[in-house]
Amino acid sequence: MNDLDQRRRRGLKAGLALLAGVMLGRAQAATPPPLLLAEVLHGDVDVTRYWVSEKLDGARAIWDGQTLRFRSGREVPAPAWFIAGLPPEPLDGELWMGRGTFDALAAAVRRQPARDDEWRRVRLMVFELPGGAGSFTDRAARIREIVARADVPWLQAVAQFRVPDRPALQARLDAVVRAGGEGLMLHRDDAPYLTGRHDALLKLKPQLDAEATVIAHLPGKGRFSGRLGALEVETPDGVRFRLGSGFSDAVRRDPPALGSRVTYRYRSLTPGGVPRFASFLRLRVEF
Question: Which residues pair with 70 in a beta bridge?
């Protein structure tokens, strides 16, 4: 092997090593961080032991003091000025534009390059301190202090409040839903910082939602002839059922692709695990 061949070989090895390092770095960067995930509120729960807040329909975002990431672990392509205003403490929250703005928010926070006019409407609504000490009551107070010290309009603490009983909780849920909100979250006041799915955090919504994979397109009839009639979907547990409502005309003309994941709403489950009164909500957005 001559000198030129040796140099080429060394160059190829170096290039492959660099590529492997880049790919490893990307894989590590995209590792989902451990987070606290909510259970559904049911049964005889003493709601007076919980702080209550509005459930925000946005994009979960985690700030580690240097980088803002989605729940997936991928970096949020936020403008430099947005990042510069965040404090050195780790934060867990929701990127949010307001009630009923999920589609606009999803488009804005994924767009590259970021558009300042869109991000001026985005707020990071903080509801937890990753690794924070003490009870949730302690951490909620600390969140308010951190947000006040940062003093930028795009960083806000999620408002936490108490209810005296179940009827009062239901009244607050009804008021939030009438105003265009999604539901409520309940965080047990004495809970330490936790990760994984845990009943220290509960969600309450007028309708439940879940995700399923599209496995078939079923043709429409009557006024839907020539367009989508229903989606046959499968849940992660292997339950198959049909979604036949909730579609816009645009979705009926151009339905979600086979193999894609969709979000649907439902009221309850049958004994066999089939969602009752299920309706299509949207194509699952990947953050």
Answer: 61
Residue 39, classed as helix, strand or coil, is strand
Local confidence band at 242 (pLDDT 50, 70, 90 cut-offs): very high
Q: How far is CA 183 from CA 103, 133, 178, 179, in A?
A: 18, 28, 10, 11
> What are the angstrom distances between the C-alpha of 282 and each of 2, 53, 141, 255, 261?
61, 24, 36, 11, 9
pTM above 0.90, yes or no: no
Report the alpha-carbon distance of residue 139 to residue 57 in Å, rounded.
22
Residue 13 falls in the annotated catalytic set:
no
What is the Cα–Cα distance from 256 to 239, expressed in whole angstroms?
19
Interval 176-223: pLDDT, tens: 999 999 999 999 999 999 999 999 999 999 888 999 999 999 999 999
Answer yes or no: are the C-beta atoms of 163 and 55 closer than 8 Å. no
Catalytic residue of the set 55, 203, 205, 221: 55
> What's the pLDDT score for residue 19?
38
> Could you tell me the CA-to-CA distances from 29 to 63, 71, 118, 165, 251 in Å, in that order?
13, 11, 25, 43, 34
Tell me the backbone φ, ψ of residue 27, rounded to 5 degrees. -65, -40
The separation between the first and the last C-alpha atoms of the chain, rounded to the nearest angstrom, is: 49
Going by C-alpha positions, the residue among 239, 211, 215, 216 that lies closest to residue 229 is 216
**SS3 for 106?**
helix
**Cβ neighbours of 72 (radius 10 Å):** 13
DSSP state of 163: -
Residue among 191, 208, 248, 224 nearest 50 (CA): 191
Q: Tens of pLDDT along 31-68?
A: 899 999 999 998 889 999 999 999 999 999 999 999 99
Predicted local confidence at residue 82, as pLDDT: 98
